[in-house]
Amino acid sequence: MDRLIEGGFPENTANLISGPAGSGKTLFCMHFLHEGAKRGEKGLYISLEESREELSRAMESFTIDMRDMEKARVIKLVDLGEMRRDLELERKKKMVAFDALGSTISRLIKDTGSKRLVIDSLSAAGLPYRSSEELREDLFCFVRKLKDHRVTILLVSESLENGSLTRYNIEQFVADTFIVLGLEEMKGDLRRTLTVRKMRFTNHDTAKHPFLILKSGIHVAADEKVF
After folding, report:
1. DSSP string of 126-185?
2. What pTM value is reported for the model?
3. In the CATH scheme, what architecture does the domain 7-180 have?
4. Per residue in 190-209, pLDDT tens?
């Protein structure tokens, strides 16, 4: 992956990962935190859909030791249930907008000393909004506030069956980077692909590349292209 983007994500940038269910978005993000932790950079994973137990269990089939890194306090997983308790929201309220999320995540960044941040996913946080204009404005302010902490961010969205590359079709405009993961049927099999559609500050590769999910995680075939 690093070969496609001149060595990695630039520091203090917001990078969007999008794709359909099963395309490897969560694993990609875990890789990002795991590699950072090996370099001494603490990471924070905010899950707005899955519980932290589900995330940890999903990683058990890979050689990515998230539990050990949590114990060592180099990676912290926080799910929406924990955030609701922190925000003291009523149990009936199922959704949290970006303004409340921003304040809580800012505190968590300071408390953990994190340099890498994952938010999975923006799709859940955008549900309370009734207009795309309001959503775009709040999302822009949310991302700008997080970047003030000098963290490198991975944001997750989902592509839709109608052809839209993101859930709300605005997420890619507030991010510095836009990477699309795909699932394409080829000769009866599903093939996973990765395309860097946008990346500021970097002379990035623009081709569509296949990737595999192995026991050790994601492996991008930088020398191969999908036509």
Report:
1. TTT-S-HHHHHHHHHHHHHHHHTTT-EEEEEEE--TTS-SSSSS-HHHH-SEEEEEEEEE
2. 0.93
3. 3-Layer(aba) Sandwich (3.40)
4. 999 999 999 999 999 999 99
